[in-house]
Amino acid sequence: MTDTTAPGPLDVPRLLSQLTLEEKAALLDGADRWHTEPIERLGVPAVMMADGPHGLRKQSPEAALNDLHESYPATCFPPAVSLASTWDPALVHRVGAALGDECRAAGVSILLGPGVNMKRSPLCGRNFEYYSEDPFLAGELGSAFVGGVQSRGIGTSLKHFAANNQETQRRHVSAEIDERTLREIYLPAFERVVTQADPWTLMCSYNRINGVYSAENPWLLTRVLRDEWGFRGLVMSDWDAVNVREHGVAAGLDLEMPSSHGVGTARIVQAVRDGALSEEAVDLCARRVLELANRSLPALAPGQTFDADAHHALAREAATRSAVLLKNAGDLLPLSASGGTVAVIGELARTPRYQGAGSSQVVPTRLDDALTALQGALAGSRAVTFAPGYVVEAEAPDPALVAEAVQHARAADVVVLFLGLPPSYESEGYDRPHMHLPGPQVALLEAVAEANADVVVVLANGSAVAMDPWHHRARALLEGWLLGQAGGGAVADLLLGSANPSGRLAETLPLAYAHTPTIGTFPGEHGQVRYGEGLLIGYRWYDAHRIDVAYPFGHGLSYTTFGYSDLQTEARDAGREVSVQVSLTVTNTGQRAGREVVQVYVTDPECSVFRPEAELKGFAAVDLEPGQSVRVTIALDERAFSYWHVGLARWVIEGGTFGIRVCSSSRDTRLATDLELAGEDPLQPLSPELPTAMWLDHPIAGPRIRELLEGDPEYDDYRMDRLRENPFDRVARMRGFPIPEAELPALAAQANASTDAGA
Ligand code: BGC
Fold this sequence. Notes:
Distance between the termini: 53 Å
Bound molecules: beta-D-glucopyranose
CATH architecture of the largest domain: 3-Layer(aba) Sandwich
Largest sheet: 6 strands, mixed
CATH topology of the largest domain: Rossmann fold
Strand content: 15-25%
């Protein structure tokens, strides 16, 4: 439909020249909680934004500011924790597009998400809003989400940039992270989304990184984000994340949200008048607000609607793909359509937990529950009984409810027991104090399993729960995460086999909290959280420490089986430019149609720096009929082989042998091969204070130094060997050393110029 009502584009350069300093400063402040400031005299419209992102949380103008339960109904798709388990960018893109349509219908121009922060600890209260413990997976899915929403002419806000990995003290904690860890773990998902999907906006985090608030960090918001990654959108603050507004403007924080009620505007104007802030910096930010308005205008035609039924169906499809079958002893699942009684136990079967709490909480257009869905699907063929078994928020068992549940279990052929975290256990704003399921639920499982060993457990949780104390009691285990408004039907489809599980874990499920990477360093103390585990988060940690886990990253069962064969790699290897095609054949070797997620992990066993044992660098999903085979090709780019070289301050592929593992999970390698890449022999630029060893081992400087030392009895090879660890300038100061300290800079310049390290 041609849109004839949308206003025409703004002439940004002309507007900038017409706006007063006060008006430009006002543009850099929200008008209220959800709008940018309009400038009516020049026809600059307000841009509306709203939370989500797994549904639209548009509040009515009358809603109390912090009433998270009040918003217009919208489709509640599965939150990020669940969508991530689909490992399916195409599906995530479709969900994003549907969300874009709901925004258009509501006149909302920016959907505030997705969140691509890493799951550093399972205790982070907001993990349900984040995709993964792996930056590559989070980046791919985040890009798909952004691409989907923006394909409808609606913007996104990639958040929370960066290192917002906990809720405890989130507004001022300083995340103390070394640069290599930032570059390889905490920034790449943002980088991937920025470079692949061009999000219209990005939201900075509340916290500080190495002492500097994200809202006023020029390294983060300008050097890395814009100069290195080429971000061309607008940066907004998280809600009330601004510390010193004028510092934010100088650092590249375009928009303060929500409205500071004039405080930020006045500070900006004053700072320009005092000469503490340049007007060019204000212009730059104002230009980005105007450009955002321009990008927003075309989609804002009145009278647009969306198809709530179609979106509910898509939410069900996404939920079906999201659940992960962790265990299925003796093929207890799928349940057959006929047979004896199915005892459904657990309050969460009829009162589903389908999303997390906080700013992302949406009011669904409708809500399915698994109990009704199972009863409907089995009507007339199998009896379904129900016992609640526990009160969701209770911390002590209810003996009468347990007794009733046990009775049901005893009388049934099979038990489907719904367990999970109560809503109060996980939310934006605080972290979990522990990883356990509520005690009464575990006690119920024990009692029920005594009465009937054929127990299927269906979990509802927004982040990993400790498995050790109880999971042996479940013969089958379906990790349902939080499945959105259509999760009930999806669970029934999966339990009954009308859908075949295909979800894969996007985070490791450890046996116990004591095994997790951040013991002792989460959530920090005295306002600081030290990322002492460095690169080793998630599976990288469990692999490095050879720790058994309950269910590894990437794991997920199916009702069919898959065979892998004929691995081939084809490399285009031109130094820093590398691409590798990994191809293999996947065959459905079972009896049912199913979907396999092929995962490619890269290892770098011969590197001069420490590298995690194996890292996910590619994946692809294939749908296969029984007996069908398909050739799958997964492309790996330079980044798949690179590490961040701290000395050179850039990515480096160190030449040598790399391993390619084709896996069904991070701990289930199906095919493997090696690959030689020329890469480079990274040379750090020499400077006088570096260790003598680096000078002696340098291909240009080393021979030159030996030449200058030739015949000197005091500084022969033996003596120089003893001095390898000493800074070279201090060696040059030693009595009688033949190379004067003053000559070192020239020697260094000569050596650096003849290698690309000097670049
Ligand atoms: C959250 C953001 C959210 C914003 C607006 C903040 O507290 O951290 O994720 O988009 O509020 O509700």
